[in-house]
Specification:
Distance between the termini: 34 Å
Order of helices and strands: HHHHHHEEHEHHHHH
CATH class of the largest domain: Alpha Beta
Structural class: mainly alpha
Number of domains: 3
Number of strands: 3
Radius of gyration: 22 Å
Largest sheet: 3 strands, mixed
Length: 248
């Protein structure tokens, strides 16, 4: 059942032309190794935009998209599912009326999760489609009482996924790092990679580094992009190894 459901989601995303076969296989390898739901994994790897994926599912499943930003708190609905279950399954109880619990889901075809909710709550469940980020924001707002409703990912994540334009390639040359320190001799210079250097920069307190918020956002975007690239490469390598194209 789970395999058929995942296949249906893959078919919808592929048919919409949002990703190609290689990207889908990379996402599958990532899921197999590190877990996660298909759509969030595709978004995390930077292959698709969340809004585009949600719209494709809406058209493929013939379901409207429910936006949770203005949904009022329904205490009766929240009492039916605990917050840990919501976090783990990526669901949010929208309303409870006439013994029917309406649940927002990034994947309304997830019958296993719907059955689990029905068993836990002892009510009928009606699944509706919502974006994963909106579901997580609703969980934070209505269960944890966190102020504000942030349905958009961070600016660094937006840059990686193409939701906002990345800074120009020479943008980092504009950072004011102060005068350079005395240059050591070549034999005294430690061999460190770009990732290590960037991590050290990001760990420097603002008061010491003197970076502005915009400059820190640029550095964070670069770090997230490096992590995303590494995840893609690892997923592809793992896939090639399983298929017998690589050894070791």
């Amino acid at each position: 059942m789970a395999t058929a459901r995942a296949s249906r989601l893959r078919d919808i995303i592929l048919k919409a032309g949002l990703v190609d076969e290689l990207q889908m296989r990379s996402a599958a390898a990532h899921q197999e190794q590190w877990g996660g739901r298909l759509i969030p994994v595709l978004c995390e790897l930077g292959f698709v935009d969340e809004d585009a994926a949600t719209q494709a599912l809406s058209e493929g499943l013939r379901l409207p998209v429910v936006h949770l930003g203005t949904v009022p708190k329904d205490a009766a609905a929240l009492a039916k599912i605990d917050v840990q279950f919501c976090d783990e399954r990526g669901v949010f109880p929208v309303s409870f009326k006439d013994r029917v619990l309406t649940v927002a889901m990034a994947d309304p075809t997830d019958i296993v999760t719907i059955d689990a909710i029905q068993a836990k709550a002892g009510v009928r469940v009606s699944g509706v489609l919502s974006a994963e980020s909106e579901i997580q924001a609703a969980i934070s707002k209505h269960y944890r009482g966190e102020s504000g409703f942030q349905s958009r990912p961070s600016r660094a994540r937006q840059i990686v996924t193409g939701e906002v334009a990345p800074p120009p390639t020479d943008a980092y040359s504009e950072l004011d790092l102060g005068p350079p320190p005395p240059r050591p001799s070549r034999q005294d210079m430690p061999r460190v990679g770009a990732n290590t250097l960037l991590d050290e920069i990001m760990e420097v307190p603002k008061s010491v580094a003197g970076f502005s918020e915009e400059e820190l956002a640029r550095l964070e975007a670069a770090r997230v992009a490096q992590e995303k690239t590494g995840s893609i490469i690892r997923a592809v390598v793992e896939l090639l190894r399983r298929k017998g194209y690589m050894q070791g």
